[in-house]
Amino acid sequence: ASKSVKLNTGAEMPTVGLGTWKSAPGAVEHAVEFALKNGYRSIDTAAAYKNETEVGVGMKASGVPRSEFFLTTKLDNPDHERAAEALEQSLKNLGTDYLDLWLMHWPAPMTPGSVAPVKTIDWLDTWKSMEKLYKAHPEKLRAIGVSNFSVEYLERLLANCEVVPAVNQIELHPSCPQQDVVDFCNAKGIVVTAYSPLGSDNSPLLQNEVVKKIAEKYNVQPANVLISLQANRPGVNVLPKSVTNARILSNSNIIDLTAEEVKELNDIDKTHHFRACHPSWTGWGSLGFPDCKDADK
Ligand code: A2P
């Protein structure tokens, strides 16, 4: 895999970045500092993770100049109607003047305190607010994009937007391949970023026989096989999460898989489908993810 993928803005986004979903304050500072000190040049966080401040501490502690790494954060669901304020808050939390990428975290507008999407708010209006901020403040936003968008949602977005999202960040691993979304994004020049490439915490994929067999062949960990599977998909980059030094180091080692190995890995989904990220408020299928219905995890 090449070391970066080109966004539709012309910017390069590294192929492997550090994910921080579920990386708790207290641990994430060190993970970010360690990753940056050891060659990572992409860090992903979100307002919803409640760790932006600590991610910022780690960024600073690393000594790596801000201009040398790619930083992504996301607009939280309750902030759809207050995007400008949310952007300022994220910049302040992270201690930075700009974001390389700002994503709508979910097409699920809520209001502070609401427990489910509020149907009277349209996420398309949220996108329009993000577009406005992007155009008005190029010094603060280098790119904007979306996350957790299915094909159906992307079609509606593309039919109604002025700025084509640079990225769609979605869950991708052998038990959640979302090939339809990847194909659609490839065709439209939207980079797909894979989150939970291992299948998140306590993933059964790390014990999967096919994954283990391929890992043994290349003398790498099962995690490397899973991360490499995503890194080698055209137009895709990947965000393995870890707060463990040895894993942070090892996870950036990408190997080339044969077409046959890729097929074997892709076949896992036929018998073992699951999604690691399914907030209770999504309601299976209601965000246009029909493959969620048979989640078995
Ligand atoms: P930890 O952060 O404690 O090191 P995903 O990227 O799919 O969301 O997976 C993250 C989960 O996988 C976390 O529980 C993380 O644990 C664990 N993990 C990260 N890297 C590895 C690895 N190389 N081997 C095994 N587990 C890993």
UniProtKB/TrEMBL annotation:
> Which superkingdom does the taxonomy of this entry point to?
Eukaryota
| The UniProt record lists the keyword S-adenosyl-L-methionine | no
Q: Which GO terms describe its molecular function?
A: oxidoreductase activity, acting on the CH-OH group of donors, NAD or NADP as acceptor
Q: Which UniProt keywords apply?
A: NADP, Oxidoreductase
* Entry annotated with the keyword Cytoplasm: no
Recorded source organism is Lyophyllum shimeji
Q: Give the family per the record.
A: Belongs to the aldo/keto reductase family.
What's the protein here called? Aldo/keto reductase family protein
Where's the NADP-dependent oxidoreductase domain? 16-269
